[in-house]
Amino acid sequence: MRLKKLFSGLLMGIIAFAPMAVKADETATIRFILTGDMPEFTSEDGRGGYAKLASVAKTFKKQTKRNIRSLLIHAGDAYSPSLLSGLDKGKSTVDMLNAVGVDYMVLGNHEWDFGPEITRERVWQSNFTVLASNVIDNEGLPVDGTVRTAMEMVGPFRVGIMGLVTPNVKEVSSPETDQFLPVMDTAKKLAKELKGQGANLIVAIGHLDFVEDMEIVQSGLVDVLLSGQDHYHIFFDNGKDVWMDAGEDAEKVGVLDVHMKSYMKRGKKRFSWETDMRYVDTKHIKEDTAIASKVKSYEDLLGKELDVKIGETLSELDSRKKTVRTEEAAIGNLIIDAMREGVKAEIGITNGGGIRAKKIYDPGTKISRRDILSELPFGNVVVKLGLTGSQIWEALENGVSQVEQNAGRFPQVSGMSFKWNPKAEVGSRVVSVEIGGRPLIKGKNYTVATNDYLANGGDGYSVFKKGKVIIDASGATYLANMVMNYIEAKGTVSPKVEGRITAQ
Fold first, then answer.
1. pLDDT at 16 over 70
2. Is the model's pLDDT at 20 over the cut of 60?
3. Where in the chain is the domain with CATH 3.90.780.10?
């Protein structure tokens, strides 16, 4: 994190350029207006949201003159997670992306939250170019509707574009049989292809983690990297290529101008480029009225469906990330108890990272449908597995293997308790496990309630794929609905932290 801030603070506005021209011949500019990681439609604390993004995009596109090409770029993570996506699986988001005039988008990990069929459906609904250059299906073909590369003509110049997706999607989302080729291998191959097609400038739109971003930058394979996923605003320039990260929610919209020119030197035509980089803080940007109206219509629709009270909590519920991803949480107990009861399983295990609203509910709070869908926005269903005691132990070891990173795999459990040592080596952290008040028997079979994401091996729970499927996803109930029904049936709930998970 310190390194990110260092880049953001020290490298702002540095200009990248090739050797000085002797005599200008032809010039042109390509402008990238960059956003990403924005599944929610509205602004927060006066910043961000689609209506403000539309205003920024319109302003900069209006400045387009001869030999200037402006493109609105989305760096991935749009379809999910949000309240509305919990109802329509990202369909309204694509409608919004179309309305604001996105030109190019790379798929992010959350684009697979509802499975590969929905991914493809949303891609085909898009009125813009969708890239996923390193993603193939089980037949070795690109994701249906996406393109591997694109070429933009800007005056006399060719700008080659690729889209790179982090392979980590396999762990954090639900791509099923979709496969993710190595990022660097793909970048090397496509850069060569694009140059062979006459590209003067190579651009990668990436949904990559910080390490992957740095590998691309340091490789020199691309001239410009426009990236999302890190959720930071980053300017980076090493004198050979430029990296800009989108941040999140369009709070600050990136604007990157690449000024290209050709010139004669020693009798040969040469090419050079230089950049201007800046972020537009949307705090004081007026909303685009047409997009604001569209956002309001969706908010009104949500209000009718979601602002219905279903019960009351008599105890405090804390869904902040630092709670649900590192320790037993009362809200985690509430959710997993509902899941276990709903499918009549002996125990239940769910991932803390699936609890998303990041808020505290005081005792006496009336719980609404909106609250539950805010907490559980992914559209998961509750499945039932048969697992051995050894497999359950292995699952718990995975659950506590990345607590230091606040990883989403941290387990919230029901019908069981376990002790673990955070100072022990990964893979040997679980100290003891009890089920129904008795020590776990490794050779015994148990029934387990979980969500379909974990059942398919998500968040590192590959051991779940070895279990016997008792209730599969096709016959399952939506997780959010199961929790809502549970609360509504009881009227009042009072979950507490009760020693299910103990760090020694």
1. no
2. no
3. 307-503
Which class is domain 307-503? alpha beta
Sign (positive/negative) of CA torsion 189, 194, 200, 205? negative
pLDDT digits (tens, 9 = 90+) for 293-305: 999 999 998 888 8
Give CA–CA dist 211/207, Å, rounded: 12
Mean of all residue pLDDT scores within the chain: 92
CA-nearest of 436, 77, 444, 336 to 231 is 77
Rg (CA), the chain: 25
Q: Kindly state the percentage of the chain with pLDDT values over 90.
A: 80
Distances (CA, A) of 380 to 122, 163, 177, 452, 476: 18, 28, 18, 6, 9
Q: Does residue 381 carry a pLDDT above 50?
A: yes
Q: pTM here?
A: 0.74
State how far Cα 141 lies from the chain centre. Answer: 23
Please list, residue by residue across 393-413, b when 16 or more beta carbons sit within 10 angstroms of its beta carbon and e when fewer do.
bbbbbbbbbbbeeebbbbbbb
Domain 2-12+24-299 in CATH 2.40.128.110? no
For 169, 366, 483, 485, 495, the CA distances from 113, given in Å and listed in that order, are 9, 29, 19, 23, 28
DSSP state of 21: P
